[in-house]
Amino acid sequence: MPPTDSASHRRNCSSPVPSACACIAAFLIVTFLATFSCTVHAQLVPAGETQGAAAIPLTADEREWLARHRDIRLGVDVARPPFEHVDEKGAYTGISAEFIAAAAKRLGIAVVPQTGMQWTEAMEKVKVGDIDVIPKVTPSAAREQFLIFTKPYTTYPSVIVTRKDRLAGGLGDLRGLKVGVNKGQIIESNLERDHPELSLVPYPDIEAGLRALATGECDAFIDNLGAVAY
């Protein structure tokens, strides 16, 4: 597959196995939220304000849970654009932010973004109950021990990114090379499990990983197409 731009070669992998060659399903993780389908550009709204959006029908247990949790604490990965990030004005924004805003409107609830943390910290906080909701998480057997998943609201493939001087047609071409991954993401654990022959180098976020790729610190970087192409 020819390079898609002047900076890198990206290839969509296809495989039924949940590995770097599988499509990533970005999931919104909630303990109360009914599924919904809408596209809006909106800010998170205070509890009780629906702003004309159709209310989501809830069970008695769901209504009781919301009554006991007036402010829903939302875990935010501050360095994952275009899905979510905090802009220069300190506002939570991105694709996931808009889905959260749409749900908040329809439920008439207040959602309070908990910023100032990286992905791994957000996952730890939701695990121990310090936050209530965390968006864009790919399910796994380990995560399903402490999280409840909705249906996917976005789906993107995983891709291999390389410099133009070292193209890769698949994971087999990465043997013996340094392969960058985003630390704590499902891609890292799947590659460790399914492809132990690869030499993985974890980076705190995508920007750090792509910078390392550009400077030659690693030979390839594997992550979500939407994130690396942003």
Strand content: 15-25%
Distance between the termini: 20 Å
Largest sheet: 6 strands, mixed
Assign the structural class, choosing from mainly alpha, mainly beta, alpha/beta, alpha+beta, or little secondary structure.
alpha/beta
| Arithmetic mean of pLDDT | 78
**Low-confidence parts:** 1-53
CATH class value of the largest domain: Alpha Beta
H and E string: EEHEEEEHEHEEHEHEH
Number of helices: 6
CATH architecture of the largest domain: 3-Layer(aba) Sandwich
CATH topology of the largest domain: D-Maltodextrin-Binding Protein, domain 2
Tell me the number of strands.
11
Helix share bin: 10-25%
* CATH homologous superfamily classification of the largest domain: Periplasmic binding protein-like II
Number of domains: 2
Shape: elongated
How much is the radius of gyration in Å?
A: 19 Å
- Oligomer kind: single chain
State the main characteristics.
230 residues, alpha/beta, D-Maltodextrin-Binding Protein, domain 2, 2 domains, six-stranded mixed sheet, three-stranded antiparallel sheet, 11 strands, 24% helix, 25% strand, elongated, disordered N terminus
